[in-house]
Amino acid sequence: MRAVDPDKVETPIGYVDLQRVRSNAKKIASYCKEHGLNWRPHIKTHKSREIARLQIDAGATGITVATLREAEVMSTVTEDLLLAYPPVGDLKLKRLIQLPHELDLKVALDSAQVLKPLAAACASAERQVGILIERDVGLGRVGVQRVEDVIQLADLAQELDGVDFRGIMFYPGQIRMAEVDQDAHVREVAALVEEMTVALAKAGFVPDIVSGGSTPTLWRSHNYSGITEIRSGSSVFFDLEALRVGVASHDDLAYTVLATVVSTAVHGGAVVDAGSKALSKEVRSAEGDYGVLFDRAEVTVKTLNEEHGVLDLSRTDWEPRIGDQVRIIPNHVCVSVNLQDSLLAQDGDTHVMLNLEGKGRSLWVEESLLNPH
Amino acid sequence: MRAVDPDKVETPIGYVDLQRVRSNAKKIASYCKEHGLNWRPHIKTHKSREIARLQIDAGATGITVATLREAEVMSTVTEDLLLAYPPVGDLKLKRLIQLPHELDLKVALDSAQVLKPLAAACASAERQVGILIERDVGLGRVGVQRVEDVIQLADLAQELDGVDFRGIMFYPGQIRMAEVDQDAHVREVAALVEEMTVALAKAGFVPDIVSGGSTPTLWRSHNYSGITEIRSGSSVFFDLEALRVGVASHDDLAYTVLATVVSTAVHGGAVVDAGSKALSKEVRSAEGDYGVLFDRAEVTVKTLNEEHGVLDLSRTDWEPRIGDQVRIIPNHVCVSVNLQDSLLAQDGDTHVMLNLEGKGRSLWVEESLLNPH
């Protein structure tokens, strides 16, 4: 990490409170310990090796990634990696088999069309990769539909060289309502997970890993019976959605976008330099807004253009002036971090810059290799 | 540009048809010539020096940028640059005055609070920067509200050392309805523009530049009386919004996102590897979708997560298979390009990779300076 004078950092930029990141990590690790769960944070949220190391120091047992770039970067931080995304095509498989051989690499997938070429690539590279079969538990995105399909893919993984059946994966991403209204939905998912583990046991499979969890259902993860690990991503920082769902409090928010007021010419609004290229224009609630000021909950971001964010001043007596800095809680933290060059992080009295090594999709080559001197 | 074998390029990636880019540039240049307008494309859409050069070769008389990074990059391509965004704060002013002195640099702004420090910085650096006063013509984002404020700022610019009053700027960004329904709205904006030029003339100002235009109103730009130049950005590529507004036809679309089918496990859908981190999750129409397949208009992107795009197959007899490649027309091209590492561009029989040098906000240092050998 590079130490930095925060007054020498231009806005807009993602701003991280490292003490809160550590506190969030500690809470999740404690929760997992209490319920006998492993914690494998999804680093798509932060894409930073420094923060991944912090999570591992706090008790994370491995790391989850979505892209091969993230896998390449995080293979320098952990030896226990889950690629929670189907790798399709020769180019991606070539990158995958070039990951360090000492890595305990697991890949989640939902089809024989992905499994077979993956197994062939691994076998020809003389390496073994673990397989998690993903089942759709209600989101309707990826994942096999029937428990029979889980068994069938587990059987196939068992048969093929280069891969080992290691377990199952699910993602209850449809559960985004307020925490107090989640009970019935969590029970539905839990029933589907149990159905899988029972059917697998009958078929002679004891899954080593049952990987689940999400940030909105974070503190109920133990209700998914049979679950062995959680992958929650945005809980490293939390965001406005997490606040509204109730899974985090204001004191847990560890990421905001630092922005500067650049215009107050239009009555009732003020324009800041954080637009959709810093916050992302993603609606996540009935409110229809794009963020809220960290220090003034009555001020929302009502419009986003690429480099303009328009603050709604109709419910505040604050009178912003050009040059004022504000901190914005984004709706969805993962897509906002992905828009930053790097992050400004506060750690008590000092500030550092965090690199986002996992950002982008190109092949990652460690900086120290590029600049060996 | 680096020549490349397209089969060696992973998805998702932005895919550009350079022949269509040239054809779009030619059409805009012809339109401008016909109506005696200058063309100063906004390069926030493409952020690429190669494409900026192509636009200049086609007849663009200068370039518009939004960020200092874009200004630094594009100062190597043109000597006629407009920063269409208020530069606020000492750090940004320091970068601004370090731009090449031979540059004919113009800055748009809407307040004395931006103008005064800018003038002071320019004066102390012994350089002159042109000033365009921005007026709000209905979007309600930035821009002074009254014609008196335009005059007042023009007066102030005239008085101050380091800056020269050069003209006015407006952006009719509220006009996004179908082209056939734009008449009354364009007339309203035209009346406001005329009011400004008349009032300025009375006050003894002859604006050298009246900068306006937008992509949705592209072919009506000559209806804004007194306008001298247009800045339209996304017309370099166009996008789904432009298609729906009617300002472009399918044959004009020069940018799509190349994606690969990774899952067909959920009935009625197919999942591609272009998610919100490749397309951006920005709703731009009543349809509520996030994109449409280039070759199959009946297939829309109905859901976007970070690395997942879910195609709606309910209106097609196409049966996608894992590994199939598709091309997606994004809702809003500017934010999609901003999410790419670089672009794959087809130019007849050859393919090249385009760098996006203007992407991000950090100080730009030309690659050839970093690697002089």
Order of helices and strands of chain A: EEHEHEHEHEHEHEHEEHEEEEEEHEEH
The count of domains of chain A is 2
- Which percent band covers the strand fraction of chain A? 15-25%
Name of the CATH homologous superfamily of the largest domain in chain A: Alanine racemase
Number of helices of chain A: 10
Largest interface: A-B, 63 and 63 residues
- How does the overall form of chain A come out from the CA principal axes? globular
Beginning-to-end CA distance, first to last residue of chain A = 18 Å
Radius of gyration of chain A: 22 Å
Count the E strands of chain A: 18
What number is the mean pLDDT of chain A? 96
Main sheet specs of chain A? 10 strands, mixed
Secondary-structure class of chain A:
alpha/beta
Name of the CATH architecture of the largest domain in chain A = Alpha-Beta Barrel
Provide the CATH top-level class of the largest domain in chain A: Alpha Beta
- Residues in helices of chain A, as a percent range: 25-40%
> Could you say what the CATH topology of the largest domain in chain A is called?
TIM Barrel
Oligomer: homodimer
- The stretches of 5 or more residues of chain A where confidence is low (pLDDT under 50) are none
